[in-house]
Specification:
Length: 445
């Protein structure tokens, strides 16, 4: 099987594609050849407006020269340095720069940074830090982890265990001692809401229920996405995150925000932590950290957590955890250049000025056939379609393919279409996105 549209087309057989219907894809491949600004160019030459910032990660838009130059320079200066018991300046510089823009600002004190290679690794790292911290402070019975239904925390065993998407879990063994809060999606009470829905803060009380069931002294941490992205954009009800924070604090449970999607400006604030004004103990990030250019993740830890682990003999390794590619020089160079662009162009808060127009443009899709809900916050939108009774997911998939062919990249989960454009998006791009999407929805059976 080869791609008909590529010169010297490679065979498509060897590459086992992730989270892809491989046989369906290879029968009718969609290949991207290049990217610049807000657009991809597909291998057949047609331009595709990027409605998803790649995979929620290209926040500053594509083809940024400053990042390319920084990576090239770093590659020619120091291509790799061992990450264990050795260091290099770019890793310290990037951690320091991140600490300066850390979630919640200086008062939050989330200014200790552990580097990983991806969002999944950030999640597993945060869960392990939480367990290590509890033990370090004499709370070693706290080994239980709490996630939430419909949560997506990547694909490591920690992440799928606290995650709540059944297809990512059913085939695989889970970590023991994990339980889940109920999800907050409530179409009956909260449909077609701009921003945070009114109903559902009480769902945070689920954590009290789990404390009553298991005992607080068994629970190390609770992890949630402040805005659940991959499951189809679920915005937290008003007051929900605040209550979760209170309950965690009351019971000595660490609160982890998975900001792999919401981090770096997606909501119109630097982090969801800033947007909602709720400060967790650990924050996981990746994606926008390097504008998606070089794989990397980072966990922000509170100083209290970090310092609690800096005990024992100075010659002892404090945390038996890390990756060959933690703080990789190229990723750090890319990340530093990315932060520079975010600062120069005000991208971490740019979404705030566009959010209202974004919401009204997307909510104009209300009334189109099959649309049963629309959710928006910052520069994110979820458009939920009525599933076909005999083929759940098929309708949204067909919309996705139609959009791509007509020049718009969207992302689909089940029958929910998600939009999350690069933060450099302009009003005319928003108009084009919603036009192509409306036409595709109208065409689908
Ligand atoms: N956590 C969240 C909230 C995510 O959205 C994702 C990816 O979409 C991940 C973790 C996993 O990130 P990665 O695919 O880089 O491992």
């Amino acid at each position: 099987m080869t791609s008909p549209s590529l010169k010297n087309a490679p065979s498509l057989d060897a590459y086992w594609m992730p989270f892809t219907a491989n046989r369906q894809f290879k029968a009718a491949p969609r290949l991207l050849a290049s990217a610049e600004g807000m657009h991809y160019t597909a291998s057949d030459g047609h331009r595709v407006l990027d409605g998803t910032a790649g995979l929620w990660c290209v926040n500053a838009g594509h083809g940024r020269r400053a990042i390319a130059q920084a990576v090239e320079q770093q590659l020619l200066t120091l291509d790799f340095a061992p990450s264990f018991q050795m260091g290099h300046p770019a890793a310290f510089a990037f951690a320091e720069a991140l600490a300066a823009v850390a979630p919640g600002g200086p008062e939050a004190g989330l200014d200790r940074v552990f580097f990983t290679g991806s969002g999944s690794e950030s999640v597993d790292t945060a869960l392990k830090i939480a367990l290590a911290y509890q033990r370090a402070i004499g709370q070693g019975t706290r080994t239980r982890l709490i996630g939430r239904e419909r949560g997506y925390h990547g694909v490591g065993f920690g992440g799928i265990s606290v995650g709540g998407l059944v297809n990512n879990r059913r085939v695989f063994t889970q970590l023991p001692g994990v339980d889940h809060l109920r999800h907050t999606h409530d179409l009956a009470r909260n449909s077609f809401v701009k921003g945070q829905p009114e109903h559902g803060a009480d769902l945070a009380e689920d954590l009290e229920r789990l404390v009553a069931l298991h005992g607080a002294e068994t629970i190390a941490a609770c992890i949630v996405e402040p805005v659940a992205g991959s499951t189809g954009v679920l915005v937290p009800p008003k007051g929900y995150l605040e209550r979760l924070r209170e309950i965690c604090t009351r019971h000595g449970i660490l609160l982890i925000f998975d900001e792999v999607i919401t981090g770096f400006g997606r909501l119109g604030a630097p982090f969801a932590t800033d947007y909602f004004g709720v400060v967790p103990d650990l924050v996981t990030t990746a994606k926008g950290l390097t504008n998606g250019t070089v794989p990397m993740g980072a966990v922000f830890a509170s100083r209290g957590i970090h310092d609690a682990l800096m005990h024992g003999p100075e010659s002892a390794i404090e945390l038996f955890h890390g990756y060959t590619y933690s703080g990789h020089p190229l990723a750090c160079a890319a990340g530093l250049a990315t932060l520079g662009i975010y600062a120069e162009e005000g991208l971490l808060t740019r979404g705030a000025g566009l959010a209202e127009d974004w919401a009204s443009a997307v909510h104009d899709l209300r009334g189109h056939r099959h649309v049963i809900d629309i959710r928006t916050i910052g520069l994110v939108a979820g458009i939920e379609l009525q599933p076909r009774p005999d083929a759940p997911g098929a309708r949204a998939y067909e919309v996705f393919v139609d959009c791509f062919e007509r020049g718009l990249l969207t992302r689909v989960t089940g029958d929910i279409i998600a939009l999350s454009p690069p933060l450099i998006v302009e009003p005319e791009h928003i108009a084009e996105m919603t036009r192509i999407l409306a036409e595709a929805i109208d065409r689908v059976a």
